[in-house]
Amino acid sequence: MPNYPFWLGGVAASMAACFTHPLDLAKVRMQSLGPTVPSPSMLKILRHSISNYGIRSVYTGLSASLMRQMTYSLVRLGSYEEMKRMISENGHPPSTGKLLLAAGVAGGLGGIAGNPADVLLVRMTSDSIRPPEKRYNYRNAITGLISLVKEDGQKGLARGLGTNTTRAVLMNTSQVGSYDFFKTTLLQYPIPLVNYQFHDGFFLHVVASLAAGTCGTTVCSPADVIRTRIMGSSGNASPIEVLVRSLREEGPAFMFKGWTPAWMRLGPNTVLMFVFFEQLKRGWSSLVPS
Question: What is the DSSP letter of 251?
Fold first, then answer.
């Protein structure tokens, strides 16, 4: 298998984030709302933000999002590609089981690497729905990181680390691992009824990434909601305490709160990320022949 730069996935994910950040902002705000607040729609959140604070407000926290992609996504995609190359046998692709295992391990590494940026992203995108006295008022990711360390110490960088790493393992397995699975399956077998056979190209990448995005959204939703509530709070509640309290106050449906904006964000984000990633791979191969 070709050997690509470790950072290539981080660049692709950053490019995708520039397009989908407003949807991520809406998702975080929906997940941050407690049971006493009626859950608004994604469009209502974005419309309220634009009408009150201007169009630039939907890109609040973009610097934290880019920091997250260049830590979390860079490590999870780079590690996965490296592991996939190492476990390939004589140029043949690894089995699905090995790919999913590699994706899970790489996701865990990415979750650890990107945790500080995740904390900043959650706080910056949900700041406007907090009471004024409880806002963090980070100007950008760099000043936010400095403030986080000054106010919370090293523990602040690891806030929600367990939940975030669990989510990262689930996300990488269900998104990146399933992308390779869907892509390989669609290349091997024709579509039933219409007997359409996919070929490796743009259309295949879009279909496989849409399926992977739907899979990733559903699998990761419970951990995503809990992670958002832990990182956005100033208390020290454990993931179990947040889970029990949320189940008691809101019922099991809380685990899929914000699923629609999460899918509307992750679906396009997954498509853009993998399309950019595939094109960057091709471009790199043409510039640096193996």
Answer: -
Which contacts (CB < 8 Å, 24+ apart) does range 92-95 have? 93/180, 93/184
Predicted TM-score (pTM) of this structure: 0.82
Query: In tens digits, what is the pLDDT along the chain, a chain of 290 residues?
Result: 678 899 999 999 999 999 999 988 888 888 777 666 677 788 888 998 899 889 999 999 999 999 999 999 999 999 999 999 888 877 677 888 899 999 999 999 999 999 999 999 999 998 888 888 889 999 999 999 999 999 989 889 999 898 889 989 999 999 998 999 999 999 999 888 888 899 998 999 999 999 999 998 888 888 888 887 887 776 777 888 888 888 888 888 888 887 887 788 788 889 999 999 999 999 998 888 75
CB 112 within 8 A of CB 154: no
Q: Is 90 left (phi over 0), alpha (psi -120 to 50) or beta?
A: left
CB contact at 8 A, 117 and 74: no
Residue pair 258/30 in contact by the 8 Å Cβ criterion: yes
